[in-house]
Amino acid sequence: MREVMIDFETLGTVADAVILSIGAVKFNIDTGQIDDDGFYASISVDSNLAAGRRIQEDTLIWWMDQNAKAQNVFKEAKQDLLPALQEFHAWFDPDLIKEYKVWSNGADFDIPMIQHAWRTHGIESPWQFWNSRCFRTYKSLPHAKQAISVPNPGKHNALMDALTQAKQLIEIHKVVVASAKGKVKV
Question: Which of 77, 99, 144, 146 sees the fewest Cβ atoms within 10 Å?
Answer without folding.
Answer: 77
